Amino acid sequence: MTGVVLKDIRKSYGSVNVLHGIDLEIAEGEFIVFVGPSGCGKSTLLRMIAGLESITGGEMVIGGRVVNEVPPSRRGIAMVFQSYALYPHMTVYDNMAFGMRIAHESKQEIDRRVRAAASSLQLTQYLDRLPKALSGGQRQRVAIGRAICRDPKVFLFDEPLSNLDAALRVATRIEIARLSDSMPDTTMIYVTHDQVEAMTLADRIVVLSAGRIEQVGAPLDLYERPHNLFVAKFIGSPAMNIIPSSIAQTGDTTTITLTGGKSVTLDIPSAASEKGKTASFGVRPEDLRIATGEDYLFEGDVAIVEALGEVTLLYIEGLVDGEPIVAKLSGIVDIKRGQKMRFAADRAKLHLFDAEGHTYRR
Ligand SMILES: Nc1ncnc2c1ncn2[C@@H]1O[C@H](COP(=O)(O)OP(=O)(O)OP(=O)(O)O)[C@@H](O)[C@H]1O
């Protein structure tokens, strides 16, 4: 079994603690994506799995073996970097063959693996070219091909698509999804800033913040059931709207009073001791719709209209100080700046967080 187990993994640079005890079990063949704001430690964690950073504390297990002191080349991993890191003077073929030559594989085996990887990544016609004669997307596919040739048990990706333009990014993302399907026993661990990559590639997403795990779960699980305010705001774009509120009535359902005075009842239970406490009410931009009757959540002035064709984003002011509420309506909507509007949402789509930012569970 080539799962990866992290037990209380810690990292410090001198007196600066960067990772504060990461516990995570990754199953063989799983596709795991690390996300989190810049500086949260996701690249450091990936590099520790690769063996490129020392481990300050805890235990790292790959395939049932503790690897804390095992060098990168003996961990059965391959890593793809943002910056391709190809040898400029070598052809695509030689770049892909290089690691196997160093490992003294036979000529036939090298040829078989290079051609198989090239074929699966649609690189066969470029095998004799130098990297400089390839596009960014092709170069990244060569870097991925080189990693495949090493027949890794664990595949690590550090923001592999961030140097590519939008169209290539989509194409290469689909390539990586296909690759992962074709290597069902290979564990993949992927770091990205890109929500779409995380949501579409991951079996499970790990959300990190300031060196700690905030939540681990399937993409839609994180989207629909964030454990806390941090994950709620981090997953989803534009981010979930948060409106300060206070708990007015508790019980099987909870009634809150929003900033501005409107009462909202949620199908979320709360204990009597919660009454009177401050809370954060959350609703995603895409869950808002224009209210038709009196059953609305809030009213405000449309400050900005962004018509993107497939969706229209409305920025509504006048409710929360400093931050507009965002509504994402599908298609083209005939709404002008300055209009006063009311918005509603299905009760099942509403979120509520306590003063510490924890979710009130349904
Ligand atoms: N060699 C180092 N010495 C001291 N601090 C470091 C070193 N390398 C990284 N750090 C710090 O560790 C923290 C985590 O860095 P890391 O690169 O893992 O973050 P990240 O989440 O990958 O960020 P980004 O998304 O910006 O790449 C940062 O605060 C960074 O400044």
Short characterization:
Pfam families: ABC_tran, OB_MalK. This protein is α+β, with helices and mostly antiparallel strands and 362 residues long.
Describe it for me?
Keywords: ATP-binding, Cell inner membrane, Cell membrane, Membrane, Nucleotide-binding, Transport. InterPro entries: AAA+_ATPase, ABC_transporter-like_ATP-bd, ABC_transporter-like_CS, ABC_transpr_MalK-like, ABC_transpr_MalK/UgpC-like, Mo/tungstate-bd_C_term_dom, NA-bd_OB-fold, OB_MalK-like. Pfam families: ABC_tran (PF00005), OB_MalK (PF17912). It is a peripheral membrane protein. By secondary structure, this protein is α+β, with helices and mostly antiparallel strands. The protein has two domains: 4-233, 3-Layer(aba) Sandwich (Rossmann fold); 243-353, Beta Barrel (OB fold (Dihydrolipoamide Acetyltransferase, E2P)), CATH 2.40.50.140. It has eight helices and 20 strands. The strands form four sheets. A six-stranded mixed beta sheet has the order 6-7-8-3-9-10, with helices on both faces. It has a five-stranded antiparallel beta sheet with strand order 13-12-11-14-20. A five-stranded antiparallel beta sheet has the order 15-19-16-17-18, with no helix packed on it. The mean pLDDT is 93.
